[in-house]
Amino acid sequence: MPYGTLIRQIRQAKHIRLADLADEQLSEALLSRFERGQTDITLTKFLHLLHRLHVTPEEFVLLADQPRRIGPDFFGHFSDFYFRIDASGHMENKEKALLRAQNLVTVTAQDYRTAPTRWHLLNWRGAQIHLQRAKHNLDMPDTAVIDLTPVQEYLLNLDMWTAVDMQVYAFFLSELADDANHLILQAAAKHIPERMLDSSWQRILFPAGESQFMAFMVHGKTAYARDTLAILEQITARSPNAMDDQVHLIFLTGWLAFVTGSDQTAGRQKMDQAISIFTILDHRLEASRYRQLKEQITGADPTPILPDIWL
């Protein structure tokens, strides 16, 4: 397939107008001619175009059915938003940590004002959530309501998902309503690559789904959790490194059985089995984490379960 044709398919699937892609490097006329196969563009401009579309070079090559190549990270500021202040060693310097988060809000807000694209708006909303979480982790609660309607509408209306979209979903999922998340997860599941070769997908898919499962369980949405478990099984079946994910699935299956099944003993045994496997594999962090989670599930530890995502 000609690259221009594939670019047009990606752009239209993401509901991005040519006018939204155009900037000082890519004119609307040039983009239109490239999509129609009437002109070529330089590699620098092509990589810039992928960046504007929020598609990694690896993904584009896979979509074009060519040998995989390694490209730069195209995830905007979202990698910065996963910075956990309470676990980062910055607790002794609250002012520095807050300044970093506040600066991200300033930068992303200015980006949006300069070029009010949907991508800049998503980054701005992400920075606002990141700052709010930072204040909470530093015992400085911020109760301001952040309008996440643009995020929800963006994810619900995608006709094609890329690794960047999955990163956006993973970051915002704990902020969105359960009903919306259930619909979004179902949509995302339809776009899991047949070949899980792209590391940018591989490292985000299962953790996002597991975090969503935990949220549904904590909120008592066991039917949604069951649907999520089926999706996680689908993800694991397509993953080239599925062993760890399979152990996670054993634990999650046990959790669901413990809460919803008539035989709580069987559910408890599955959770213990997963913890034992992690211990045997010398995955100490995961063994400790799931041991504590099991105690919270069974009531031995009264501490509330707080869904989180581990990347």
TrEMBL record:
Gene Ontology molecular functions: DNA binding
CDD domains: HTH_XRE (cd00093)
Family matches, as InterPro entries: Cro/C1-type_HTH, HTH-type_regulator_Rgg, Lambda_DNA-bd_dom_sf, Transcription_activator_Rgg_C
Cited PANTHER family: TRANSCRIPTIONAL REGULATOR, TRANSCRIPTIONAL REGULATOR-RELATED
Name of the protein this chain belongs to: Uncharacterized protein
